[in-house]
Specification:
Blueprint: H1 8-15, E1 20-21, E2 23-29, E3 32-38, E4 42-46, E5 49-56, H2 60-68, E6 70-75, H3 81-88, H4 93-96, E7 102-103, E8 110-111, E9 116-128, E10 131-143, E11 149-153, E12 156-160
Length: 161
């Protein structure tokens, strides 16, 4: 007998108990720049170097990543909760980058002060229910200053040493 399928709310409640590292995924497509806080970035392969992110199909970043064929990820440090909150909400495009310090380089904006940055080209994409799972080939990995990371658990950001 096959058990019933969990509801989305049940999955959300369970996943809230599991800490997720936080990064801001950014994209720049034909001058449209966007950032989105995510806790879904995972390392997939070292040869070739691949990471994956899950982006909601209704997110503006979804269409931009598809169009650009590339994205960047800034791994947030423990003192960047305000930045995580900023990009977690639907910030109007005109206000999105106001007051946000950027680091040089990248296929898309890099958040200054991050622990590391990954520049990725879309290697594959898979339909995943109400999300798309983008596999990115890492074309550049840059380390920032060492320090604590930022994680998300139980609807709260937590510094991790």
């Amino acid at each position: 007998m096959i058990p019933r399928v969990a509801t989305g709310d049940e999955l959300r409640s369970a996943m809230r108990r599991f800490p997720a590292p936080i990064c801001v995924v950014t994209v720049d497509f034909e001058g449209d720049r966007l950032g989105l806080t995510v806790g879904s970035l995972v390392s997939l392969s070292l040869e070739p170097p691949l990471v994956g992110i899950s982006i909601g199909n209704d997110q503006a970043a979804h269409a931009l990543i598809r169009g650009a064929g590339a994205f960047a990820a800034s791994f947030l440090s423990s003192d960047q909760e305000a930045i995580a909150r900023h990009f977690a909400h639907g910030v109007p495009p005109l206000a999105m980058w106001g007051g946000i310090e950027l680091a040089p380089g990248g296929v898309a904006p890099r958040i200054a002060g991050a622990l590391a940055w990954l520049d990725c080209r879309v290697w594959a994409q898979y339909d995943a229910g109400d999300h798309t799972f983008f596999v990115g080939e890492v074309v550049e990995a840059v380390l920032g200053e060492p320090g604590g990371a930022l994680a998300y658990r139980e609807s709260t950001y937590h510094p991790v040493a």
